[in-house]
Amino acid sequence: MNGTNVFRRPVTTTERMYFPMRELAPPFLMQLAIPGEGNIDPESLRSAVTIAAAATPGARLRRRGDEWVDSDIVPAVRVVDHRLSYPALETDPVLTGAIGPTADATVEVLLLTGAPTTLIFRVFHGVMDGVGMVTWARNVLRALRGEDPVPQRDPIADQELVAKVGAAGRPTPMIPRYRTALGRGRQHRDLAPHLLRHRRIEAAGPGALARVCALLAAETPGTSRIMMPVDLRRHDPDLRSTANLALPLFLDIEPGRDWTSIKDQIKSGLRERRELDQLANTRITLIPDSINRGVLRATNWLGARLDRNLASATVSHMGRFTTDELAVPGFRPTGLFVLPQHSVAMPLLFGLTEFDGHTDLTVSARNGAGIESRLEALLDRIVAMLEAELPTHSPADRSQ
Hints:
The chain is of the alpha+beta class and 400 residues long. It is 28% helix and 24% strand. It has one domain (3-398). It comes from Nocardia alba.
């Protein structure tokens, strides 16, 4: 490529904290899974990925010093005769494998041909946030349908946008003192360091995120601190970027709070644009990587041994989707869910999506003695609560 026209942008302080995670919580990838009925031709998929990547240079980035640079290398498409290993997804050899084909790759696409056919977009969090990953996946699906992808060529991530928009307040202090709904559990080599689970909930509707936050707080001693990622693109609707453009809104919640008051708390935080203040917390990543790794290991130890965490959980809602908007020739999706990356700094990371009248709930949990059974019981309670409180939809409703 002509060096003067190459897409590039700085590696932000937020993104710097993700590099040590590849070593401490491998494979440290966000993964967007779309199971469905029918088949996708591998060569058609490779062609679509090539077309979509030309319009979405964030999918072709490689790190060059302090910059992300468009390598002009199309993300790999791997076709694997495989079915996901439910329910213990943390044991799945495909989901837990490293991204490829080389160590500096940041995005790849998997086509799993074992029933059901499943399309998986795998992304290193250093180059995209969750909305960026969904945007990239939508562009690939557009190309599979023969439509033009929506260009995403703005070389802007959180630092530049916050500098433009402005942050008026102070960042939330990051002190490891918050409990979790699962309690503590000593880690040892015989246990997987993290658990990865998925539940399908036969109900959907507004308020799912606030309801989950309320239940987590009810299950946690003392005040819970929930971290809710906020899409910064809301401050510039014309922005077209798949970069990391999310910062947290912190919700401090006492046990017994009603979900409607939590929803009001969220609205207030968004109205006051409090997420913009949190970029200042990422400056700690400017310390040497070796020190950063030590800080992260200490954070993990405090959480696992003492149940003292920077936050009780992360809870994110990635949006609402339908079969019709995602379908491509020969393949009709039956769901869409996001598998969150593992983290040594966060004990629980929940992801919610809504698809044709049902809700998909996923979670990455820091594992330890006694944690797995507590997690399964917690997920049972969340599913029962959402199915009791959210509207259910008949098959006829879902087809409309």
